[in-house]
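Possible race condition, two jobs.
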Amino acid sequence: MLELTNISKTFNIGDINEERLFHKLSLKVNKGDFICILGSNGAGKSTLLNIISGKLGIDRGRIILNNSDITKETESLRCQKISRIFQDPALGTVPSMTIRENLSMALNKGKSFDFSFLVNKKNESLFNELLKVLDLGLEEKLDSVVSKLSGGQRQSLALIMSTLTDPNLLLLDEHTAALDPKTSEIVMGITSNIIVDKNLTALMVTHNIEHAIKYGNRLIMIHRGEVLIDVEGEEKNNLTKEKLLSLFKDVSDRSLFS
């Protein structure tokens, strides 16, 4: 589904603050993978998502999505195939518009449309069905302005919107970090259900080790721009927090002498 080959990225080239983050990074993501990405601050997690989404360019390398080379595609072109949810709940929706209007825009993603959807109610039954799954009562608030919703409700709505047209790839950039612990657990459960039910391919950046171990079929840990840990299947299922931290210490110690 997604293949990054020999990706290199350096910031502030030629400046005293020049910093090389990625050097010939390669990563292959299979269709249906739900990959949790861990790493310390500055490890390159969000930068990786920025590169995949087209928000950041690369110095060299190739990016292949669904057998198409998107290396030189703009962010606006990539967003027709890639959906992304950010840490800030306000970034995944239009706060000044209603739930119905937000869902209508998401349903028309990549298509030409006028603003008749502002009053069109033809998709009301579809929207009700989608929102009922969340069990947050949003189906009863279709004409409510999104800015009035809680952070958890907004992120849940953003999840529905971002997966409404079945994107090739879903990017989750610490999308529960700004939520309280209880709401975070609810949104993660909703996230997992949507990804599994729709068989989506997803990359999720998180600082929450428990979430990274519990969810998804694959776990990657990035350190200083390198993938030090990449586990999946039974190996991931048997992970504990203690095992993961021990594994990280082992491979990071080895990398110092490689």
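Job #2 (started ~2 s after job #1):
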Amino acid sequence: MARIPAQPAVQLDVVLRLVDQRIRAGSCGERFLECFEAFLGGIGYSPESTAESDAQRYVEAEARCCRPFFERHPHVLENYLLNYVYRTLFPFGREASAHHTPQSVFGEYLLMVMQFVLINGLLIGMAGRYREEFGEAHVVKLVQSFSKAVEHNPSYLKEINKFIEDRKLGTLEGLVILLKL
């Protein structure tokens, strides 16, 4: 893993494309849209900005605003992942659930990682927007609205799987690229 360089531009592109795809599908909820707008503001995204400048601001927001928060509160994302494991009966899925997408154990892992990548990426931008004011209330707002917009939408979860497959990110190297900053 150490030999694979961080590729924040790829990570940011994945977050932007997948969230945009979900928003265009409609019925995301106002709170999720507010979180996405804060994310965009935090990375300085605009129609005139470049991918490189957005990625640079993304990395800066992570280092200056997001990482310090999670160093003080490491349990927050850990709790999200634990809740995910219990709620979905990871890695086997909950067959009777509307949220179940039959797939391999590695496929279940990829889906969990991708949802984590989206949440973490959105939180980085939100932290960049709110800076010193960024706190647990922002995390709760995002996770709750994300859950409603993404986790409760089986067709979108299938779109995430297709996105991973189309971009050849469903490998250990691809996951490192998406997780490493």
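Residues 8-179 form one domain.
Logs attached separately.
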